[in-house]
Design a protein that fits this description.
Length: about 190
């Protein structure tokens, strides 16, 4: 075996050795970390599950803006996102202040929902752009049906969309709409 090949194999053996001696799989090198978007994912959910902090969604978006485009809410199942960009690794680890459960969270005001819809869909409650998200609050079909919606979101009234959105808000918090919940003053 040539010396160059043997030296190239050593780092891989060291990683395997660490994994075996600790009983845990070694983390992949930072340059190789990616995530493939799944149906129903949001940047905040990906940041929480993959990076351990919801607040890193903005850094995740910044590092992947060329892949995602101008709207952080329009991630598409099958897209591959980088999780290892320097901006993501050095993003502040402080979590945003948790939303205190109370009577106002499930019954968010119509003003907040209107602002959210304005940000998500330019206020068009019947929008279907073909991007996999529907209605004024841009539901995926998976989310819509999981929270009790019937038919297509954009074919339901704004009142029905808000009713389902309140269920989503109770279960997932405002991070279900990562960017627009800030714009709407929901966080």
């Amino acid at each position: 075996m040539s010396r160059k090949i043997a030296l190239a194999i050593l780092p891989a053996l060291a990683v395997a050795s660490v994994a075996l001696s600790t009983g845990h799989a070694a983390a992949a090198p930072a340059t190789d970390q990616t995530y493939t978007v799944k149906t129903g994912d949001t940047l905040s959910r990906i940041a929480d599950t993959q990076l351990g902090r919801t607040s890193a969604w903005q850094a995740l978006y910044t590092a992947n803006r060329a892949r995602i485009g101008g709207d952080p809410n329009l991630i598409i199942p099958g897209q591959t996102l980088r999780l290892s960009a320097p901006a993501i690794r050095t993003a502040p680890s402080a979590q945003p202040a948790p939303v205190t459960p109370g009577p106002t969270q499930p019954n968010a005001s119509a003003t907040n929902w209107s602002k959210l819809a304005q940000c998500e869909s330019s206020g068009n409650w019947t929008i279907n752009t073909g991007n996999g998200y529907y209605g004024g609050l841009q539901f995926s079909l998976q989310t819509w049906h999981a929270f009790g919606g019937t038919g297509m979101p954009h074919q339901n009234s704004s009142t029905e969309q808000i009713r389902i959105a309140e269920k989503v808000l109770r279960a997932q918090g405002p991070g279900a709409w990562p960017h627009c919940s800030y714009v709407a003053g929901m966080r």
